[in-house]
Every structure is written in C-alpha cells, then in structure tokens.
Amino acid sequence: MTKTPIKIFAYFSLLIISIFLSCTRSNQNKNKYQNYQTEEADTIIGKSISFPKALKNIKNGSITQADSIIDILNNSECIVSIIDATCLKCIYFRLNLLDSIFRVNLPPNIERVFVINIENRAVPYFLREMYPAINAKGTLLLDTAYVFEKSNRILSPNENHRIFFIDSNGKIAQYGDPLIDQSILYKYVSLSTESH
To answer: Which parts pass through the membrane (predicted)?
Structure first.
C-alpha cells in the first residue's frame, strides 16, 4: 500500500498544527506562571519567618527535638534552604553543594539551615540510605508535614523562593537560588557583611 502525496501532506500538516498548538499553549502557561512568580516575589521580601517547634533536628544520624536549636535560629541571621528529600539529586547535589558554597562565602556567624521535607514513613529509609551521603555542616531540620512552609505561608514550587536569607529581625531580606543565578550569592554575602 503506497501513500499518496495527499495523505503524506495531511499527516505532515497535522503534525505541524499539533506542534504549533502545543507550543502556543506552553507559552500561555509559561506566561501565567511568570506572572504568578512576580506576584509571589512581591510578598516574600520582608516576610517574618519563625522555626516551628514541630521540626526535628538530625545530628550524627539520629533525630532529636530541635527546641534549643530553634531558639537559637529564631534570634539569629541565617540562610535557609528548603530541600525535598524524595529527590536524590536534591540530597546528593543541591544540599551538599549549597552548604559548601555558603560555608566558603558567608561568615561563620551566619547559620546555614536546611529544612528537609520528607514524609514521616520515609524517615527510616532516609536515615539509612540517604543521610550518609550528606556532607553538610549546617543545621539539618526534618519537616514531615510542611509545617515550616505552611506556618510561615511560604509554600512554593519555585526553586528561587526555597532559599532565602533571614536578617537579625527574623525577616526575609533576600531570596534566590545561587545555583540558578550567581549574582544572588553576592547579594547574600553583601547582606551578611553589612550587618557586622
């Protein structure tokens, strides 16, 4: 069975139309998301942040209450990174790399805090399989119910809103992912040196 030029043209036309429509729809969604990001960005700077007592501290492979650490964090400047524990890349790459970048570039008095989102039932697996790969020297806090993001009203899928600098007043002074935009790191360094 041979295909006639009309059938080939029809298949080709359908392919072109479907690609065109999917690209158009994708751009509309992208613009809608960019507008959402802009609106969200306007509300994040200056937002008060606190560390809920429901968070758990991970140290030396064991989980403890984070009360004393949280009391210290609620009264100090810190850089906070929210990490998704279900993402291997986030643990092996992002967490360790961000900690290294912040450790080298920020003064030692700036706390490095990693809030690790994880389901409660996945905690034993995380401790057994993923925790050994963490080289971060910063504070690791487990959040099994998005308590940190919900209580502070900062829940966002945007990676740029999941890393931020908290000033001495407990407010977000700057946000952004230095792995996405290197200029953000210079802003963090500037903020950390201005305050001292």
So the answer is: 6-24
Query: What pLDDT score was predicted for residue 26?
Result: 38
Tell me the Ramachandran region of residue 146: left when phi exceeds 0, alpha when psi lies from -120 to 50, beta otherwise: left
Question: What is the domain extent for residue 15?
Answer: 1-44
Within this chain, do residues 63 and 81 fall inside the same structural domain, yes or no?
A: yes
Task: Tally the C-alpha atoms within 13 A of residue 19's C-alpha that lie toward its C-beta.
Answer: 6
Interval 34-75: pLDDT, tens: 433 444 446 799 999 999 999 999 998 899 999 889 988 988
Q: Which amino acid is at 131?
A: Y
Q: Tell whether 28 and 66 lie within a shared domain.
A: no
**150-51-176-35 Cα dihedral, nearest 10 degrees:** 20
- Residue 189's Cβ-count burial label (10 Å; 0-12, 13-18, 19+) is middle
The β-bridge relationship of strands 78-84 and 111-117 is parallel
**Please, which residues bridge with residue 65 across strands?**
56
- Is the pLDDT at 24 greater than 50? The verdict is no
